[in-house]
Fold each of these.
Amino acid sequence: MAVLIAGLILFLGTHSTRIVAPGLRERVVVNGGERAWRGLYTLLSLIGLVLIIWGYGLARQDAVILYQPAAGMRHLALLLLLPVFPLLFASHMPGRIKAAVGHPMLAATVLWGIAHLLANGTLADLLLFGGVAGWAAVDWVSSVRHPRKPVTSRAPSLRNDVISVIGGLAVYGILVGGLHELLIGVSPI
């Protein structure tokens, strides 16, 4: 469990600099340049992600059961996961979805975490999915309170919304259709 926790701390901590140390990015960029910031951010994130994957795999081998999900929770989880990939697509494609949601990637992350908590009941699940969903919710609130300037100058497009929905649902179908089981070892159906 220690490996999973260390990975979560490193990954989510790296992704929390805007929340807990709002000026850190700017200071690193001023002192070392944009490449220094991106390099450090990427390296720490990748190390954290590797530790999360490895730690979650280790924790699943000797699972601590906290609760047994109620009947039908897998179906509810699958329903909650439907908008996740369209939201992820929309986070990179300006359109009405992005304008309406504001932060579609964070919304997708919250839904992803909640859905997985409904269908899984181990301590490792609570740490991983609950931790990531909780972090995303805090980041979402923080980003609403302290908005950043938009990175893109492209105008919102209905075409982008259509691509987000079709592309996102295609990825969802591929994952549910077998890729999740191939990658994670668990069929979501």
Amino acid sequence: MPLFNATSFPFPLVIFDLDGTLVDSAPDIAQAVNRTLTDWNLRNFDLAQITLWIGEGSRVLITRAFQAAGSDADIDQVMPGFLKHYGDTALDGQAYPGVAETLQALHEGGIKLALCTNKPEQFVRPLLAARGLLKFFDDIVGGDTLPERKPSGVPLRYLADQFGLPVTRCLMVGDSESDLRAAQDATMSVVMVSYGYRKSLDLASAGAYAVIDDMPALLNLR
């Protein structure tokens, strides 16, 4: 772990994405998707395919899965079963290496931390608590907390307002195009991680403040 000097860190508030940034949750999400498909007597998909559908919220995810399986089922009828299955698997996601230590260093350095995810809010705090990460966060916005979610910049602007900070003094850390587009919409600086669920996103041309290969590298920002 690099030594962290809070006085030289350029942002007093860091807003993190969850899935694919802090936690590798694709396997448990895939399990919930396939259990739901099985309930409807539909084909299952492998982890790689389901991972490509992650990032824009659970409703978009399950809609894409059902469309790919050739079903025109009413998603309003599908969602309760999916959320039940997801509730059974949601605590299985594992934090990426160095995440807990990085959050602890930022927190102890006086940097405010928030979370902005498209995961339904009911699943967010239990997962963070299970991984020992909840104690580091000062505020949390889930995919159903506000009328708009990422890739809208509304949740990021909301969090900046909650801390009384202009967006220019806040940083978004994420892995996906939804994170990038939300930061761009909010005119907020963004750090992209090179792991996670970026799909076909070209990080080299993303215009990010930085691209990091592991979370501890965040502590080196200047």
